[in-house]
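Two proteins, back to back. First:
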Amino acid sequence: MEPKHPHDRREGWELFRQLNRYMNEQFAPQDEVLASIRRSMEENGLPSISVSPATGKLLTMLVAISGAKNVLEIGALGGYSGVCLARGLGPDGMLTSLELVADYARLAKQNLEKAGFGGQVVYMVGPALESLEELVAQGSRFDFFFIDADKENYVHYLDYCLRLANPGAIIAADNTMAGSGIGTPRALGRRGEIMRQFNETVARHPALDALFLPIGDGVTVARVKAAKEER
């Protein structure tokens, strides 16, 4: 099969962007709570890299559909995805959110409190791998995971998610398309290659059922199999 011409790839990428705009506008219009979080991030100098509105809607739906009671978020930023995750929880559900930067965690906590979820979220500040090791030592267990942090450690985060997962838990990871890099990893250099390898790991993992969804910048979703399903 001949590789696509760069012009063809650009056309395909533009079509993908149009489809995502349609999804955002028709299925996930941004409400005032989420819009205010984006404004707070801009005012506080945080990077504008929150999940897309459609991705946020997907997270809410996945948490709600799965009936998750304990959710772990790796990468809080300003709290946009945290609110989306918390919206899927019932009143007795809890969100544990890991964030490297203390100022980001403080802003995220403020935004979750304003959204009415202050009593349902706990923040752990510091390197995520250290926080994950602490959670393992505590014997913590989770029903839902959302990975949206430094891409170089995605595979390591996946390993920890599996160690912390209840059977049937859902693992979702953002930015797994890496722009237009999937299928042509050299187009985006190292990041594209990292995401390609991560997706291959998830797709082939014997403990996971997985699928890639072309929403936002790509979301890879997997379900942790029960032990009997792995045989």
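And the second protein:
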Amino acid sequence: MKKQFIPSIILNDKKAVKSFFDKTVISENPVELAVSYNDANCDAIIVFDQSTDDKSHEDSLDILKEICSKTDVPVIGAGNVKRMEDVKKLLYAGCKMAALNFSKAENAEILEEVSKKFGKDKIVISYADTAESRKIVADNAAAINELASLMIFMPESAAVDGLNSNAGFAEKLVSNPVVPEEGVKDIPHIVYLDNPESDLSNLKGGALAVLFSDQVCAITGSALSANAQNINDLRKFAIEAGIDVQTFEAKYKWEDFKLDSNGMVPVVVQDYRTDQVLMVAYMNEEAYNATLRTGKMTYFSRSRNELWEKGDTSGHFQYVKSLTADCDLDTILAKVKQIGAACHTGSYSCFFNEIAKKDYTEKNPQKVLDSVYNVIADRKVNPREGSYTNYLFDKGLDKILKKCGEEATEITIAAKNANGNEIVYEMADYLYHMMVLMVEKGVSWEDVTDELARR
């Protein structure tokens, strides 16, 4: 079981607070905080909603949706789940999984319903190290094993007090380890370490010992979140300690590549969402291994004769999504999440000096849809006289919905006709009107494709 590092965010009144018991605000903007965790190379993010009424819960769901859209790692939604509708809202907001709190007996009653509705791979069970919570878990162990795929375990504060004493915590784990409930020990457990005052040395000296447990797949909690910007250091330290942590597993060793005369391999870098080519650089063995270890693109600068982590000085990091070798194993294609601009000129891509171009019709479906969408969005902001798009916007939502309904009907009729061109025409009509609706309601193609990808 690969071990992971999963920071958490506790939402309270639309802000991120220090811990469950300390409402000190650590971020006025939880979305930015989540993005910083994402960019620090975390493996996932858990978001706990501490809202107390329907209005604040809806606010939290809006924040969750934005977190899911702006991060690339799985997001687990937790807190304020009382019925199947709450699970649905978390998943519809974009969460990879939703957590049922088994400190509340009533949540056990909806486990079967939500698991069969959404799938066991979407369901997490959280429980505390208390007699009441353990009993609920023990009484429902058979159902949990069948209907859930992951658990979040929250030891009592006393169990992690030693976090402030490296030797004390590690020693305590050896003699009296943090043990999940017996009946569910075969389900992977994320252990929540609630100590926001913990520093990096505390984590290295003690808390990582939790990951040696066979039942534990990850650590989370305020102790990790307080040190989230050092996750790469924690991961490296854990590897050196013999912990099998989540990293990029390369199918090719450096010696498998055909190197150029300088002992390097060229790397072509693409935006993982759009496939736009961003830049070309070179790797030596050290850069290759650093990229795999950290998840950040690292190169060797031939002009400076030194290792170069992209973004180290500019903040324009490149986070690895995939590395692929060509047929001759002498070039690497890297798909990345680009922060800021890839080019030193400030351009997003280094490839902007057009040499020659022939007029052609764009055939990339996503580019075509994006282009039409952008024109429609521009019409809403910058109206043009006589524009049919502006006519629809001026008439309002009801008119747009009416047209979408009419065009959907036209597709149905066209599908019954023998002429294949007719259905293509009607589908294009419908997509146009659908995009007008998308702009009107503030929905982007990225929102839609992200949701399709999650499915």
